[in-house]
Write a structure and sequence with these properties.
The chain is α/β, with parallel strands linked by helices. It has nine helices and ten strands. The longest helix is centred in the C-terminal third of the chain and has 31 residues.
Length: 281
C-alpha cells in the first residue's frame, strides 16, 4: 500500500456498519460514518456507507480497504450458518453415532453428514482405497437437501491428505462452483472430530462471508476505489480477501479482534507501555 495514502476501515456489525478513514499520516481519524446493517441487502448497506465516506474524502486518497465483521461470529453463535454437507472418510460408524449423540458436529439442522470408505492409518499409509462412487452418491444426496457448501474430513488426513484432495476434485468436477473445505487445510491436530467440526463450520460460513466480500468488492468497483481489500483475522492480523473467502472460520472473531486492536491504537498502549483494558460489549 502507498504510505502517502490512507486506509478505509469497515466494520460490518450485526446492528450497525461503521466506516472510518485514517489518513496516511495516522494523525487523526479523517472521516467516520455509521449506517444501519440491512442483513437482507448487504450491498446497499456497504454502498451507503462508502458513498457517505466519499463525500468527506476523495477516493484517490484510499490506498487500502480493511474489513472486519461480526457476521460470521453471529452466524456461529446463533446457529444461522448456511446448510453444509460433511463427508467423513475412514471413520468408524460407532464413533460417528457417539459424536452425533454428543452433538460434536453442531446442529443437525445446519450439517448433513455422510460417511464413506477410505482413509489412512496413523503413519499415513492407505488403510482402504477411497470409495469414489460413494463421494458422488453422498454429494447428490447433499444437493437434494439444499447443501450450499461441502466439508471433507479424513480420519488421519493430517498424516496423509490424499483422499481428501481426491474427493474435493471429484466434487468440483461433478458440481462446479461448489465451495469445498478440506479438514487438513484448517487444522493439524490429530483430533479427527474437532477437525471435522471445524471444516463443517467453515463450509457453513463460506456463503455468508462471500456475500459480504462480494458486496464490498462490487461497491469499490462501482465507486472507483482502486485499492487492495484485506480482512481482519481472528488474531487481529490482516489477510487477503481471497484467502478469507476460503478460510472464513478464521474470521469468526474478526469484529472483536478489530475492536481490541483499534482500542489499543487509540489508547496508544503500544507507545506508552502501559497496561490497558479493552472492553467490547
Amino acid at each position: 500500500m502507498n504510505k502517502t495514502k490512507g486506509v478505509l476501515g469497515i466494520d460490518a456489525g450485526g446492528t450497525f456498519t461503521d466506516l472510518i478513514f485514517l489518513p496516511g499520516d495516522r494523525a487523526a481519524v479523517g472521516a467516520r460514518v455509521k449506517v444501519q446493517t440491512r442483513h437482507d441487502d448487504l450491498l446497499s448497506t456497504i454502498e451507503e456507507g462508502i458513498a457517505l465516506i466519499l463525500k468527506q474524502v476523495g477516493g484517490h486518497l484510499i490506498g487500502g480497504v480493511h474489513l472486519a465483521s461480526t457476521l460470521a461470529t453471529n452466524a456461529t453463535v446463533e446457529n444461522k450458518m448456511a446448510r453444509a454437507g460433511l463427508l467423513l472418510i475412514g471413520y468408524e460408524e460407532r464413533d460417528i453415532l457417539q459424536a452425533k449423540e454428543k452433538n460434536l458436529f453442531g446442529s443437525a439442522s445446519a450439517v448433513e453428514i455422510a460417511s464413506i470408505g477410505g482413509g489412512h492409518d496413523e503413519k499415513g499409509s492407505e488403510r482402504m482405497p477411497l470409495d469414489e462412487e460413494g463421494v458422488i452418491t453422498a454429494l447428490d444426496g447433499f444437493l437434494r437437501k439444499g447443501v450450499e457448501g461441502m466439508a471433507i474430513s479424513g480420519y488421519f488426513s493430517v498424516r496423509n491428505p490424499t483422499h481428501e484432495i481426491c474427493a474435493r476434485e471429484l466434487i468440483r468436477r461433478h458440481k462446479p462452483g461448489m465451495s469445498v473445505t478440506c479438514g487438513h487445510e484448517l487444522a493439524s491436530e490429530l483430533d479427527a472430530f474437532k477437525r471435522a467440526t471445524t471444516a463443517a463450520i467453515n463450509a457453513g460460513l463460506i456463503p455468508i462471508v462471500m456475500e459480504l466480500l462480494e458486496a464490498v468488492k462490487s461497491v469499490m468497483a462501482k465507486l472507483g476505489i482502486d485499492a487492495p481489500l484485506s480482512v481482519v483475522r481472528g488474531d487481529g492480523s490482516l489477510v487477503s480477501a481471497d484467502w478469507a473467502e476460503s478460510h472464513p472460520v478464521e474470521t469468526v472473531v474478526s469484529g472483536p479482534s478489530a475492536s481490541a486492536m483499534g482500542a489499543r491504537f487509540l489508547a496508544a498502549a503500544g507507545d506508552t507501555g502501559r497496561v490497558s483494558w479493552v472492553v467490547d460489549i
